[in-house]
Amino acid sequence: MKQRLLFLGPPGAGKGTQAQRLAAEQGLLHLSTGDLLRAEVEAGSELGREAKAVMARGELVSDALVLAIVRSRLEGQDGGWLLDGFPRNLAQAEALDALLASLGQSIELVVLMELDDGVLLQRLLSRGRADDNEEVIRHRLEVYREQTSPLIAHYRGLGLLQSVEAAGTVEVIGERIAALLTTQGTDS
Ligand code: B4P
After folding, report:
1. What is residue 85's DSSP assignment?
2. Ligand 1 contacts CB of residue 17 (under 6 A)
3. pLDDT 10s digits, 123-163
4. Which terminal Cβ of the chain has fewer Cβ within 10 Å, N or C?
């Protein structure tokens, strides 16, 4: 059973929803950089103050800041983990590779959640978080296309990527993802 996982996909694809379920079922550490940043904003920490305006615009928080958060959580973690929403660009992916090498760990599977823009927009508009208005969502989708989607080729090249159709009920999508944890092979 694969235990070191990374969830990739556009905003609103359901990464957080599925990551939370799977991590609870499998006893994995769930590390959502979005949730961790929102917690810092809520706490009013210096880091949170720095992140708040960037998140409200739908842009990416600085790599150094996000990396410091992830490093502090992964150090000393012997069991399985699920990274949700990180890495978000190639620089973060390279920093993650270096961090994992220093910890003697490696990614076993990257799950790419795929969904049409129209459905993404509807899901996020009905969620209504502070950064879920139409203009900001469209900008987040652009940021995803420009900065995050190059990770698809990166992880496919490493033979780690599997894609999942992210339309359907939470349960059905969860079953599609669970099936990948025990299968060999990747997308070509
Ligand atoms: P995130 O918190 O990662 O959020 P997201 O991509 O918008 O959503 P996700 O795909 O997890 O969807 P969810 O399950 O919530 O990022 C927010 C911001 O944080 C970024 O814009 C950025 O500023 C910052 N950030 C985060 N990580 C960063 C990093 N590494 N570097 C720099 N900046 C970073 O689902 C969405 C909605 O759909 C929910 O309402 C859910 O209930 C619903 N839903 C889920 N599955 C469904 C289904 N099957 N059917 C119907 N509805 C469904």
Report:
1. S
2. yes
3. 999 999 999 999 999 999 999 999 999 999 999 999 999 99
4. C
Q: Is 14 in the pocket of ligand 1 (CB under 6 A)?
A: yes
Our count of domains for the chain comes to 1
Distance of CA 152 to the CA centre of its chain: 12
Neighbouring-strand partners of residue 121: none
pLDDT at residue 77, as a whole number = 85
Does residue 18 form part of some domain? yes
Q: How far is CA 65 from the centre of its chain?
A: 16
Q: Hey, what are 118's tokens?
A: 């129209």
Is the CB of 95 within 6 Å of ligand 1? no
109, pLDDT greater than 70 = yes
Phi and psi torsions of 2, nearest 5°: -70, 135
Helix residue spans in the chain (DSSP H): 15-26, 33-43, 46-57, 63-74, 90-103, 117-127, 134-143, 150-157, 170-180
Residue 35's domain spans which residues?
4-183
Give the mean pLDDT of the chain.
95
Is position 188 within any domain?
A: no
Q: Structure tokens of 80?
A: 């399985």
